[in-house]
Amino acid sequence: MLIRYKKAFEKIAMGLLSFMPNEKDLKKLQQTMKQYDQSEDWQLFLWKEEDIIGLVGVTKVSEDMLEIQHISVNPSHRHQGIGKTMIKALKDFFPGKEIRANEETSAFFEKCDSLLS
């Protein structure tokens, strides 16, 4: 289930974000979390089953377009279709909006998107 990020989930969100190649540095990771906390155009969602095992972060590009900035799944839960499920849930959460990937998330997004089509 896709849930909105809350400050109470900060540590788990930072842990999941740290799996992204460009988020390894603690200062960079803290800046990213601050961006999600403070900017209305940046939204972070967590994927919860029994525990929180994934995350997807988007930015509002325009009224009808979102761009995926981050997508991450706990390594012990990978290769089970969770990333694809998160993309589908995100599309369902924002009906009528185009969702695209940024440079960092494009390869993963294209793989998931082709499986959804």
From TrEMBL:
<dbReference type="InterPro" id="IPR000182">
    <property type="entry name" value="GNAT_dom"/>
</dbReference>
<dbReference type="InterPro" id="IPR016181">
    <property type="entry name" value="Acyl_CoA_acyltransferase"/>
</dbReference>
<protein>
    <submittedName>
        <fullName>GNAT family N-acetyltransferase</fullName>
        <ecNumber>2.3.-.-</ecNumber>
    </submittedName>
</protein>
<dbReference type="Pfam" id="PF00583">
    <property type="entry name" value="Acetyltransf_1"/>
</dbReference>
<feature type="domain" description="N-acetyltransferase">
    <location>
        <begin position="3"/>
        <end position="117"/>
    </location>
</feature>
<keyword id="KW-0808">Transferase</keyword>
<keyword id="KW-0012">Acyltransferase</keyword>
<dbReference type="GO" id="GO:0016746">
    <property type="term" value="F:acyltransferase activity"/>
</dbReference>
